[in-house]
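Record type: ASSEMBLY
Status: queued
Input:
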Amino acid sequence: MSMPLDDDQIEIIQEFATESRDMIEQLEPAIIELGQNSDSDTINAIFRLFHSMKGSAGFLEFDHMTRVAHAAENLLDMIRNDEIELAGNHVTLLCAACDFAKEALDMIESDYNDDAMVAPADDISEQLHQAMTLAKGGGEPQAEAVEETTPAEPEPPAAQPAAEPDSLQMEITDEMRQSFVQEGNELLQNTEQGLLAWGENPDDTDSVGDIFRNIHSFKGNCGFFGFSQIEKLSHQMENILDRVKSGSSLAVDDPANRLLASLDVLQQAVNNISDGKDDTVENLDQHLSDLQAIIAPRLGDFLVEEGVENESVSRAAQTQKKPVGEILVEQGTASTQQVDQALKKQQDTIKKSKAAAKPAARTKTPAKRQDIRVELGKLDSLINLIGELVIAENMLIHNPDLKGLELENFNKAGQHLSKLVRELQEMAMTIRMIPVSGLFRRMIRLVHDISVKAGKKVELELIGEETEIDKTVIETITDPLVHLLRNSLDHGLETPDERLAAGKKEKGTIILAARHEEGEVWVTIEDNGRGLNQEKILEKAISKGLIEGDGSDMTDKQINNLIFAPGFSTAAAITDISGRGVGMDVVKKNLEKIKGKIDVHSTPGQGSKITLRIPLTLAIIDGMIVRVGTSTCIVPTLSMLEAYRPEMDQITITPDGDELAQVRDNFLPIVRLHDILGKKPDSRDLADGILIVLEAQETRFCLFIDEILGQQQTVIKGLSDFIGNVPGVSGCTILGDGDVCLILDVGTLIESAESKKIKFEKTKDNI
Amino acid sequence: MAEETTLTNFGDEDTQKDKYLTFHLAGEDYGVDIQYVIEIIGIQSITDVPDMPAYIRGVINLRGKVVPIMDVRARFGIEDRSYDDRTCIIVVNIDTTEVGLVVDEVSEVADIPENNVEPAPRTSKNSEDGYIKGMGKINNDVKILLDIHKLLFSSEMQKLAENLEEQ
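Status: finished
Output:
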């Protein structure tokens, strides 16, 4: 591809890259599954994926990628046809092929060719071929034969005129067989869908036409490949459909179901073919006659029922020029009465089947789910615009100019607008949400690789794959998840021997789960390994100077949280999997970036559970606007438990000067917002203001403010990078009057208050 | 200042070369390289941000964007003065970071060719902060040309950032 590429070509290539990446994403879990149980469905799925990758890569002339995909395809084909046994190293090899494809795709995306991948491609295809020859027990020439690189190969078997004209029995290569199976499957699938739709709605002649065409092409393919038995069967189906198309009546009420039954037979035959067998259909005659029965029975059949001799009927039918009935009467073999009765019966049957057809109203065929790919940038600007719209809406509805006016109609319109904006906002949020399954499935591969490397046996269980999270969040938690899984595998789970010694099952379990909880998404990683070793953690933390004192005053939770401290690593030896001591604090930092939290629970000897708590959306929260002196702030409604005006006798002041508020049975520390903001409040007297009970990470405290101004949905904007992280503040938003308003971060508020107090005391001491 | 002056991006590097936006601050004239200047707006209500050094006055809403505001007087350690209708905010953009600079009064866009720019005097104070890029001469006037980058990201700001991280 030395020619300069135009935009169209680049677009095609990019499309190819995205598609192939999707395929690889599906491939990896499938390959791992193959390693565990090699059922033919999985092999077929993998085969198909490699095959399509090869096809499109070949089309775009990415030769090296084509070569590797082809080699992988060959290997799979041999496994599938039971020519060779699936060995453990095959799985590894296929994984390597995936890795190669990924690298090649990187290359393709940047350079639009894969020329630089010669060496790795050689290497991997060589390995794949070796594996094939090895498994076949000696280099049979066939391995060579399949080696020739196939050029671009778009599917349809009809487009393979390679057949020698002089040989009657055309040489059917594996490849052609494959194409037949693939296309056949497609056609049969379409037919099936068509039949189901037709069954729902018998008046829908359009779908009958579709079914007819599909079956017709299928029959054609069968004929071309010489699969005469299924050709016959599909021919019969075609006949029936043809009759339906031309409006003839059928003898049964449920032709679609009967055709479906035959379709299953065809499908089975195609499966057999794909497994390398021939197209023999058991009880072909039976199936054919079943189909025959669908066609409206001739009057003769009923006459036979009425006691007319079978032979005479058929004789009559042969000389049929006049209606059968008349002939029979003429011949005297049947009485007029008998014929009348038979005629009536025939009418009834036809009527009945028509009546059955009628009530089915014209329901639409179920809509196919349609997706389009949208550039993320576009989506982001859409979301930003909607964010701005929310602000603009607030500015309009809460416009200071409107204060004190009675505007009934305006308010109505305003409410309507608000409702629409909210719906729009929710819709926009769901656009960004994608299920975690993709992320989780990537972990299957990771866990497989690591467990092999670390010599541990592990089963990964995925729960709640359908849970949806914001795409950015998924990207942000990918690395943390990888780290955490590595840690669980490397540090958490014991080796099989250790496990057996501890009376556990040899195979460890890691559960990766996602679910909605408390307005957040919780992603948990749970293992049944040895759990965190608190003594070791403490020892390490002390030796590294991460904590002061001997840690005896620390709670279990605090000790567990030490693993997230920068520079902490407990693995006795640093392995190449984990243990560099950079992982866990990065995990925490990444999570903080998306305002998430991380919890660790551990039971020694039983395992540990790490929970990532992630806010549902990054962009919008429900907030309570509060005022202290001249400044306003927003408190996230989610963390608010209650708000009340305190009585002085509910307030206790400790000798240290800490103020505690009694809320029912609990004493909660009071944090004064005016101290944090450095503002002058209306009154420093607690009884004059409002206390809001806030909860963050299981600690509760009261926030002292002057008053609550109202509730509002707010779009979170980051404070500028220039300012960086401000303790106690998670971001800001723009209020109705255009002012910037800080959003309080309940989690760090109390820490911020404490640090201020220390500073305050220090300055006091200095004086 | 009621009207807003927007300096559109000229796009062409050459047209912006040697051009400086000059402003008054406590009796002196200063200049900033015009390529960093996005727009000039009148003073508007600033929202306080806690735990900031005194010269970071807070943030403003600039058409939906949140822009931090630095008071240049406070930054230079010059005595405070209440804002009036001549007080302006010069919004500058460096490496996609936008910051508003509060100055007493904006004067003009001046052309100061390179050969009219003297290197910054090496005083002991300056060597620490180093946010003076040079002294620009126009006829008999002298403009103190500021190194915006250092003004915004000098060691002091970094120290602040480090302090914050420690917390």
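Annotation: The longest helix of chain B spans residues 155-166.
Annotation: The domain at 5-166 of chain B is CATH 2.40.50.180 (OB fold (Dihydrolipoamide Acetyltransferase, E2P)).
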